[in-house]
Write a structure and sequence with these properties.
- There is one protein chain.
- With about 375 residues, the protein is of the alpha/beta class.
- It is built from 15 helices and seven strands.
- Helix 5 links the parallel strand 1 and strand 2.
- The chain is globular.
- The protein binds S-adenosyl-L-homocysteine.
- S-adenosyl-L-homocysteine binds next to helix 3, helix 5 and strand 2.
Length: about 375
Amino acid sequence: MDVVNVLHMNAENRKCSYAENSTLQKTVILKARKVLEETIKDYGSHGFPQCFKLADLGCSSGPNSLFLIANIVDGVHAFCQKKNLKAPDEYQVFLNDLPNNDFNAVFKMTPQFYSNLENEIGPEKSEKCFICGVPGSFYKRLFPSDSLHFVHSSYSVHWLSQVPRELLDINKGNIYIPKVNPAGVYEAYFNQFTRDFTAFLHMRSEEMVSKGRMVLTLIGRSTADPACNNDCCHLYGLLAKSLHDMVAEGLIHEEDFNSFNLPIYTSCTDELKAIIESENSFTIDRLETFEVNCDTRDENEKIKSDESSGRFIANTIRAVMEPMLASHFGNTFMDKLFERYAMHVTEHLSREEPKYFNIVISLTKKCK
Ligand code: SAH
């Protein structure tokens, strides 16, 4: 399945449950913010360039991308004031996503962004923050050589460029790495991720200046064991169970179910480190992990195993998965599927509390 084409199909449906997903992603951005701030400070302690060029890769069409850019620009400004350093005169901001992304939705939010920025850093500086959209896959080249000082990406790099082709024959009845006998499926996913993430690092190494900085946050798994138990993989297993229910009810064909696999990979920290080291363009400055409750409304408390949590989590997953599911199966049974899914998630919550396990890495581009 070509991820480029399906991620943004069915944008209307995506919007209907966007809020839950956006909440999760904003929680993740907030939790990773310390690493981002520290990275900006490290970078700035050697002096900022006159025009600071930064990119957010996989920006999507919600408010998070501009929220994040405002955080970076405010962070740079505050740090320079505190340390009495010269702040950049200009910022060039590149917002990247796949070509089907609704860039217009992001551009429509820029007036609000500029007005907030003006309040924070004053009219002169905020006028010199130039934003543009860059459509294309981050597994290919997006920018000219040696042109970027800072790259950020949140909740995007765990998306694979494609579903590993070998899975069609070996992963019948599952949509991700199964808990039982995961070896062959795990290997196919891991090899695809290694190819993709290596390409990602290589492309950025061409585009970034020496000593440029990159902060990546991605969803991962907490153990080296691929059949992880309480991470989000469990939620994928419950989605497979719900699809299986649809097969049993004659709403989808078994062959269609058997040929569907998620183009996502949840790596563990050792795998990420090994790929970064073997690609050899970046040094790792920081690598941290943190968990987020699947019901992000209740970050500081235990998830209550009630129906409302099950529905909330189902809607979060729906926002991400529906375009892909609809493109593979058609969209006639989506409400039914996600009702069933909410039920399975609610049931699961009475036994366990699944968490999204996240990895945030701060990297420096090595000198050539
Ligand atoms: N960064 C945003 C959105 C995360 S959703 C936030 O934190 O809120 C993941 C985004 O990654 C989607 O918009 C998806 O289209 C994008 N994406 C996935 N694969 C991509 C690729 N190969 N190149 C560019 N963007 C990609």
